Description:
50% of the residues are buried. This protein has two domains: 18-133, Rossmann fold; 149-444 and 479-488, Rossmann fold. It has a nine-stranded mixed sheet, sandwiched between helices. The longest helix has 21 residues, at 252-272. It is built from 17 helices and 21 strands. It is an alpha/beta fold. Helices cover 36% and strands 18% of the residues. Strand 3 (60-61) and strand 4 (64-68) form a beta hairpin.
Amino acid sequence: MTSEVGTRARNGSAGRQTGLRTLIVGAGEAGKALARDLQRVKEFGLCPVGFLDDDLTKRRVRHLPVLGRLSDVLRVATAERIDVVVLAIPGLPEAEVTRLATAAARVGASVRRLPSFVGLLQRDVVGTDLRSLHVADLIGRSELHVASPEVAEIITDRTVLITGAGGSIGSELCRQVNGFAPTRLIMLDHDETNLHRLQLELRGEAFLDSHDAVVADIRDAERMRQVMAYYRPEVVFHAAALKHLPMLEQHPCEGVKSNVEGTENVLLAALEAGVERFVVISTDKAADPTSVLGATKALAEQVVKRNSGGRTLVSAVRFGNVLGSRGSLLPVLVSQMAAGRDVTITHPDVTRYFMTIEEAVGLVLEAALLTTGSETFVLDMGAPVRIVDLVANFARQLDVRDVRIRFTGLRPGEKLHESLFSEYEDCLPTSHPRIFSAETLPVHEDFDSLLLSLYDAARRNAADEVRRTLRAALPIYRPEPVGAMAAVQASAPYPDDY
């Protein structure tokens, strides 16, 4: 992995890096303060190129041009090759926010708004709080603009189905896919509350009588065949999964039912329906797995490999830890800091690879474009980040002082350090300079029979048998606890998340 490779702004060479090209919506006082801070503090990683404002008397603000009205966002974002659109108009109606976000997504730009996590801490928002919106100093690198405009070739005027649509990743996928103007976007989730919220955001109404919002469980193979046969999607993004590592250590049968059998149910139904492209979301924990989560996701990758070679292009994408997703580190930190509680970290030296939700979804979209079948794609996320350093930087950005850290010990299945590739895998280049492909291991010679045994044990809720069969089906799975503090786990209190 080439962690030394620097991020390049789209308008510059490696030697003239200036950050992501940024369009500010609103040339009022908030927009001026925003532009001032971006111009003064290069560490924000954003390079302002101009404003949008409906006041036609404004021509230049902070030496930057006013490039058009708010309704011109698509034209301006395309012409100026914008990476990020920042909303600097307090009280902007949600319908207008949705319109701006949809238009920006069509050219692969992300939309940010104030306030962010600072608002959750109920603090006054000032210009420098923008720092909390940008994660370069949290993840140790500039945020990458991953998805290219060419993604439109596989999304526009196509029927796209997204499982787990109501989750953090699934909902962001829906937003960005919606921006590429598919013929139809089918949002599938087993949680009707999440679907209601998402439909309200994307459509402006949420009566839930639309055929585009589908309540269904990926564990139900017959239901998956029914859905695929009815909608005939051309592109499927499979984001539905169980992802909390400690929870799956306690309930391995549920991990198998959702992450392995559920993935196979959706994939086989998609193959029967003649889907053109199918992308499964995996995790870096699938590389040399030590947890049930990692093992079930590694098997999901092998399910993809096992079913490649036909007319459906199937692939997988490995994520690092996604900042801001539900149950991930930043929301937990916000909750703990706001309550004045100790911040819980497993180990002083624990590191993780991090990516933003925008990067994660961009990687999924770009993988769907790049795939020729059976690949597992990985984003170059730079060097891993010490959690202790990330917490310190995050607290500093929010001006939270005297953060108390309590170390709790690594939990069963957790690694001190994650890796993006197994020691048995090769890291292969792709046509994208920051996306790599893992040459995954061949499947076990008895893969099909072992999967059937695994599914049978999971349905009988035989946890010990599931663990044994996981090890048989996936020899690289080593479930023993690892790390310098593993010995204290039995007595250590468990943190809320990290």
